[in-house]
Each structure stands twice: as structure tokens, then as C-alpha cells.
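For practice. Supply one:
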Amino acid sequence: MDADLLPIGQFARLSRLSVKQLRHYAELGLLVPAHVDVDSGYRYYRRDQARQALSIGLLRSLDVPLPVVAAVLSGAAGVLDGVRETQEAELARRRRTLAALERIMAEGLPAVPVRVVTEPAHPVVLTREHAAGPADVSRATSTAIARVLREGPVAGPPRLVGLFPVELAEDGFDVRAALVVDAGVGAEVLAGGAFACATHVGPYDQISLTAHAVLAWCAERGHPLRGPVREVYVSDPASTEPDRLVTHLMVPLEE
């Protein structure tokens, strides 16, 4: 046997990977042993495979998924772009979470005033976008709103409403955007009725704090938690500072 070959344990120490990881990467075809003893099944690696092993370890330490690691090792161009976008989105979500936490630390748990309002039915144009999970709500909502503004006739400032399920399932759900239009123009009707309503002032990514207060108010008074939960966008985000955005959060109280 070639004297340059190293047994798996020694190669693991050289490449700073575990034996278990090396076996797994071999199964995936990422890092195949240079030699496998037919009788004993022992695995051996060449010293010059250490660079590839260390590269795999480096990429995994940066949370690069294994399929992307394989593409990087094969020399494919641009394959890390998607990883960077995913990590940037996660970083933005973490920052939003931190901002909400800091608001709770400063103001306490949400206790905004909740009132009961009666809302008439409205003719609307509706669009729908699938959110992959709670972390995808912002993107899905923005996409649905942009689409409904393209599809619906708008005379004057648009009156927009976001529609969300009460439970935001981890495995995904649909987000809808409604544009209120003149009677006879809309293909659908947004039902009216009685609603528990609270006004959120601040960034859209902190609306969950106000939603907490409204849902708690409903639960304490024995109102079934039914949806869709409505976000009525009062302010124009293009001309309003995030801390001054006004949104009415509404939970239906009756069918």
C-alpha cells in the first residue's frame, strides 16, 4: 500500500474533521477515500486530500449547505450567492426580533387599547402569495401588495388591507392583499362586521406586538379566535418614517 496513505483516524486529525464526518462525506461523494481495504474495510486518504477536507470544514463552519459545498468544490461559479442572500435575510429577521425585544424591555408586554368597531363590506381586488413560514411574512405581504396594486384600478390613494390566518403555520400559509375599489369594479367582497381593533404605530415588523394584545383581549372575553386577521394600512410607507407608520389591526368577532 502507498506509504503516503493515511488511515482515517490520522487523516481526521490532520483535516480537523471527525471520523463520522469523513464517513458521511464519503457516502455523499464529497470526499471519497483514496483506498478502502477489501478485507478489513479500513479507509485511507492521501495527504493531498487534506486541502479538500479543510475546505469542506471551512464552508460548513460558514453554514453553507452540503449540496452547495459540492458545487463549490466542483468549481461552479456564483453558487454562494444564494447562501449569502439567505444569511442576509436571516440577519434581517434577527434584527427585527431584537428590535421587538428591545421595545418590550422598554415598554413592557403589549397592552394597547382595544376597541370594538363595525366595518362595512367593501368591494376589493384580491391577490394571494404563499409564505414559507412566519419568517417569510414580510416578503409575502410585500409581494402580494405589489401585485394587487398592479392588477387593481386605483383612483386616489390606495386603501390596502393585509389578510392573515390566526395561526402562522411553520410549514407555510397564504397571505392575501386586498385593494378596496369602487362598487362594481371589484371581483370580490371583503366581508364587514364587528371587529376587535387596535392601532399599531411603528414599523410593520413589530405589528406582532399589537397582534398579541388584540388576540389576548379576545381570549380574555371569550371571543373565538377566528380569521383572517386584518392589517389596514393607513400610512404611505414611501413618505412616512417607520416609527410613525399607522396600521389598524382587526380581528373579526362574528361570522
Notes: The chain has a mean pLDDT of 89. The helical segments are 8-15, 19-28, 50-61, 66-73, 81-107, 137-151, 207-220. Residues 5-73 form a domain with the Multidrug-efflux Transporter Regulator; Chain: A; Domain 2 fold (CATH 1.10.1660.10). The CA atoms of residues 131 and 140 lie 5 Å apart.
